[in-house]
Design goal:
Elements: H1 6-14, H2 33-39, H3 45-48, H4 50-64, E1 69-70, H5 78-82, E2 87-88, E3 97-98, H6 122-136, E4 142-147, H7 149-157, H8 159-168, H9 170-193, E5 198-202, H10 213-230, E6 235-239, H11 247-252, E7 257-260, H12 266-275, E8 279-284, H13 286-292, H14 295-307, E9 312-315, H15 325-338
Parallel strand pairs: 1-4, 4-5, 5-6, 6-7, 7-8, 8-9
Antiparallel strand pairs: 2-3
Length: 341
């Protein structure tokens, strides 16, 4: 098969058509310190400045050979920030993080603000999308990412309290989700309106490590299903930890793709997802192999992911900032070698 353009390769795979080789990249954050040093744009400036954010986004393709590009920064707090959470100060090797839970004492007065897209970093993202489209044109697919509705809801209330509410005050959980669902839809549609090709909802708080599959079915699944119906383009659902117990439900959300960590059984996930017409992104280990492993270990694990049928060869989660560039480059090297056979 003739070599495809990067955009064509991604879309063909995403829509179930033939490709010349498995696309390689990242569908989560890649605020890697080595990328920053190479491109000359570091965090925390790259968290809030559209030019720095854009150059760091382009560093993934430029220095690691990623075949598509991430918009909207290097953390998953944008919805929560716009809904009133205070954020902790980022550093070159530390993301923005949630520092306050504005509705910890109660949810009176919680509603979806009409000026949501003028809050937080959305104005920065708007300019960032413009710059990114200018640089990338139609060469590569661009995606946006934020936390999803469930994770945003837990941030507003406090995760521990929100988990207790799932047991004791389910009505409150539903009330918060009604609001954060609107935030998730608005953010995704903002991204599509500004040039994103697909969108990622990261839902770490919905992982089986924190939430039982029974509560996932009760609270998360219906909300995700409505979100997927109401957004203007395809979405990928990313959930951390061992998602084996909820893979079927992840595929029932209406997401076009799922992104999973190395703790999940990739081969089984691919089998289940493909029966439902869903694509799988993953899943080279970020907390271990990419971060502290040798280049040879990354190469070996990436090859194993290809053997297990991943649709898109990616890190299993956001790449840890101190991960060595040489390790991250092994994803592309392993993919290239795999398809030379």
């Amino acid at each position: 098969m003739a070599q495809m353009s990067l955009r064509e390769r991604f879309w063909n795979r995403f829509t179930g058509k033939d490709v010349d080789m498995t696309p390689v990249g990242s569908t989560t954050t890649y605020g890697v310190v080595d990328f920053m040093k190479k491109c000359g744009h570091e965090r925390p400036k790259a968290d809030v400045d559209p030019v720095a954010m854009t150059e760091l986004a382009l560093a993934g393709p430029k220095y690691a050979g990623f075949e598509w590009v991430k918009a909207m920064g290097w953390d998953i707090t944008a919805l929560s920030e716009a809904m009133g959470c205070e954020l902790g100060t980022p550093a070159i090797d530390r993301q923005f993080y949630i520092n306050s839970h504005p509705y910890a004492e109660g949810i009176d007065g919680l509603d979806f603000p009409s000026d949501f897209l003028e809050r937080g970093r959305f104005p920065v993202y708007k300019e960032h999308f413009r710059l990114l489209k200018e640089k990338v044109g139609d060469e590569m697919v661009i995606f946006g990412e934020t936390e999803g509705a469930f994770t945003c809801a837990a941030n507003l209330v406090g995760t521990e309290q929100f988990m207790k509410w799932c047991f004791k005050q389910p009505d409150n959980v539903q009330k918060v989700l009604e609001v954060t669902k609107e935030a998730a839809i608005a953010a995704a549609n903002f991204a599509f309106d500004n040039g994103a090709d697909y969108y990622v909802f990261a839902e770490p708080t919905a992982s089986p490590a924190l939430l039982s599959p029974r509560f996932f079915r009760k609270f998360v699944l219906p909300v995700e299903q409505e979100i997927m119906k109401r957004i203007k383009g395809p979405a990928v659902l990313h959930i951390c930890a061992n998602t084996d117990p909820i893979i079927e439900m992840m595929c029932e959300t209406g997401a076009a793709g799922i992104s999973i960590e190395e703790k999940a059984d990739l081969k089984r996930a691919v089998e289940i997802a493909h029966q439902k017409g869903v694509k799988v992104f993953g899943n080279v280990a970020t907390a271990t192999t990419l971060f502290t492993g040798t280049p040879e270990e990354v190469y070996k694990e990436a090859t194993q992911c290809l053997d297990n049928g991943t649709d898109f060869l990616c890190p299993g989660c956001g790449i840890a900032p101190p991960s060595p560039l040489e390790n991250v480059q092994q994803l592309r090297k392993a993919r290239d070698d795999y398809f030379k056979k």
